């Protein structure tokens, strides 16, 4: 299978990492809209317009599937992307909600949803989780994590201060949804901050779980072809890919 992975920038590489670890695809075409990131502070119409442009870009390749690694795009633009795409389009929000439901036995469990301003405002995770019978939800827009990760701040005082800023008054959750591509990068710091028993849901792992249930993957691809495209400075994207991915 040849798959396109779309993100607003570099963050979607965390999803590619999970895809590579599970060896599902023969070829992965990654497109990061690095010229226009961040999407998480933009409005719905802009996010939809950019997402449709990404679908147009992917028409240059004969893809079996487009995976939207970006939570913000998954929250707002999946229907419109599907309308203009000639292959299936799947997003991380539905997959993340399903992975959360699978990880939690008790429907009363408290779930904390983290994401960009746009993702949190969309209430997309809440809608999916409510359908699955989970109603004990808290949500927090933690947009500051995005520039911190881009600045390679993955631990230390500045990050700890943002944790205090965002979480000091929060009830300790049973599960935390990392509803943004960048957040898995600071997972060790988040694990350190929260209770030992808190479960973390990672978009990359969630999408792999979703794909394995939905499609029949009979072959493993140990050395898939990887192609990286960016709307600005593709070399910077490739450099980060070398640092974050096992390539
Ligand atoms: N990729 C975005 C997401 O997962 C985070 C970065 C942005 O704001 O564009 O929501």
- Reading off the top of the CATH hierarchy, the class of the largest domain is best stated as Alpha Beta
Share of residues in strands: 15-25%
Number of strands: 9
Distance between the termini: 19 Å
> Largest sheet at a glance?
5 strands, parallel
Ligands:
D-glutamic acid
Q: Numbering strands along the chain, what is their spatial order in the largest sheet?
A: 4-3-1-2-9
Q: Label the CATH architecture of the largest domain.
A: 3-Layer(aba) Sandwich
Low-confidence stretches: none
Q: How would you classify the helix and strand content by structural class?
A: alpha/beta
Radius of gyration: 17 Å
* pLDDT averaged over residues: 96
Index terms:
globular; 18% strand; 4-stranded parallel beta sheet; Rossmann fold; 2 domains; binds D-glutamic acid; 45% helix; 5-stranded parallel beta sheet; single chain; alpha/beta; 247 residues
């Amino acid at each position: 299978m040849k798959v396109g992975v779309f993100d607003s920038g570099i963050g979607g590489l965390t999803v590619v990492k999970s895809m590579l670890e599970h060896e599902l695809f023969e070829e992965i075409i990654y497109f990061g809209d690095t010229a226009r990131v961040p999407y998480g502070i933009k409005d719905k119409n802009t996010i939809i317009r950019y997402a449709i442009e990404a679908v147009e870009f992917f028409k240059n390749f004969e893809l079996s599937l487009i995976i939207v690694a970006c939570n913000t795009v998954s929250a707002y633009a999946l229907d419109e992307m599907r309308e203009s795409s000639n292959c299936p389009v799947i997003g991380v929000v539905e997959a993340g909600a399903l992975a959360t439901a699978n990880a939690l036995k008790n429907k009363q469990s408290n779930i904390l949803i983290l994401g960009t301003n746009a993702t949190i405002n969309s209430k997309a995770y809440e809608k999916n989780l409510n359908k699955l019978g989970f109603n004990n939800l808290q949500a927090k827009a933690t947009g500051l994590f995005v520039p911190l990760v881009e600045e390679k701040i993955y631990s230390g005082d500045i990050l700890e201060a943002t944790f205090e800023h965002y979480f000091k008054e929060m009830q300790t959750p049973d599960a935390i949804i990392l509803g943004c591509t960048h957040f898995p990068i600071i997972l060790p710091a988040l694990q350190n901050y929260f209770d030992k028993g808190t479960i973390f849901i990672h978009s990359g792992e969630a999408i792999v779980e979703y794909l394995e249930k939905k499609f029949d993957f009979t072959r493993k691809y140990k050395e898939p072809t990887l192609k990286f495209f960016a709307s600005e400075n593709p070399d910077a994207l490739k450099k980060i890919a070398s640092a974050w991915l096992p390539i």
